[in-house]
């Protein structure tokens, strides 16, 4: 796909050394956001993390059943995959404890996104802390995803989340609450803390 200079994706992050993985991830995300694309974590091991362009992978159309009447087909439901191979790798130096960034593939095969809000990572990152906390609280109260979205649109109209974003936030919140325990282990501890002995 050819790109004009005005809408071409920006360059790969520069080679760099970071004191820890969190600092590296933050710097990389800021760079890709400013340059019109997004990364997802492709692979992570103890001493290595690989990030790839979110347009990587094979394009596939969804919800386009030929037997469905055209008036009932949903529009714009195809994933925006273009087999882009842009990616970077972060490696831990066991001697210094620093993480070094190297580029696996420096170019894209697609245009930049019109708006950073097109990416879930940026929509979620733009959330105010109290809005993030409200999602977790409403989820624990048993509200459905659509009810949570409706509440957010009233209380936090600047939050441009989708139902999938809310689901992802709730899943992350539950994992943090479990703190590595199974659901049964967590439930037993909760009951014991309230005076029940199962």
UniProtKB/TrEMBL annotation:
All copies of domain FAR1, residue ranges: 39-111
InterPro entries: FAR1_DNA_bnd_dom (IPR004330), Zinc_finger_SWIM (IPR052579)
The protein, known as: FAR1 domain-containing protein
Signal peptide: none
Residue segments, region Disordered: 57-77
